[in-house]
Amino acid sequence: MTLSISSSLSLPVLRNGSNGSDVTLVQRLLNNAGYGSLVEDGIFGVSTDAALKQFQKDRNLTVDGIVGSQTWGALLPPTIGRGSSSYDVESLQITLNEMGYSLVVDGIFGSNTEAAVKGFQKNSRLEVDGIVGQNTWYVLMSNMIRD
Q1: Cα separations (Å) of 24 from 41, 57, 83, 143, 146?
Q2: 3-state class of 132 per DSSP?
Q3: Mean pLDDT of 5-34
Q4: What CATH number corresponds to the domain at position 132?
Q5: Which residues, other chains included, contact 16 with Cβ-Cβ below 8 Å and sequence gap of 6+?
Q6: How far apart are CA 106 and CA 114, in angstroms?
Q7: SS3 for 67?
Q8: pLDDT tier for residue 4 given thresholds of 50, 70 and 90
Q9: Across-strand partners of 16?
Q10: What stretches of the chain show up as alpha helix (H) in DSSP?
Q11: Residue 71 and residue 106 in one domain
Q12: 77 in helix, strand or coil?
């Protein structure tokens, strides 16, 4: 499933009481970062709030229990592009392959990975720059939650 999102995407603001697939994504990201074993149910309740506040505290962010731009920036993987090589690139390649692309999963962001990213960005109506920053990570990861 490809989301219809403009290049002026702004990430959602989430807090205790929010619900839906964006909350599920936050719960998964918090679990992956080692903040508890949250049930990924899309309900932002007491456990998610406590895990988020601990995450914010540990990262020297404002501890308000709100997933805004700073917290999204800390939760999502770092920006990567051509020439990067890391576990995040490997994770990107695996995710793109699960969406139908055919990449060698080697953790190296080369021309084939860049072409796949540009194709994904175009199909998702994101800025087509071949760089996987906050917006591209968000849409990629959201697609995996929604599928």
Answers
A1: 6, 21, 31, 12, 9
A2: strand
A3: 88
A4: 1.10.101.10
A5: 44, 45, 46, 48, 49, 65
A6: 13
A7: strand
A8: very low
A9: none
A10: 21-32, 46-58, 69-75, 87-98, 111-123, 134-146
A11: no
A12: coil
Burial (CB < 10 A; 0-12, 13-18, 19+), residue 102, is exposed
Instruction: Note whether 143 and 99 are within 8 A (CB).
Output: yes
On whether both 61 and 105 belong to a single domain, the answer is no
96 and 141 share one domain: yes
Domain count, the chain: 2
The answer to whether the beta carbons of residues 55 and 35 sit under 8 Å apart is yes
In a domain, 16, yes or no: no
**Range(s) of the domain holding residue 108:** 87-146
Write down the residue that tokens 């697609």 correspond to. 143
Q: What is the pLDDT of residues 45-89, one digit of tens each?
A: 999 999 999 999 999 999 999 999 999 999 999 999 999 999 999
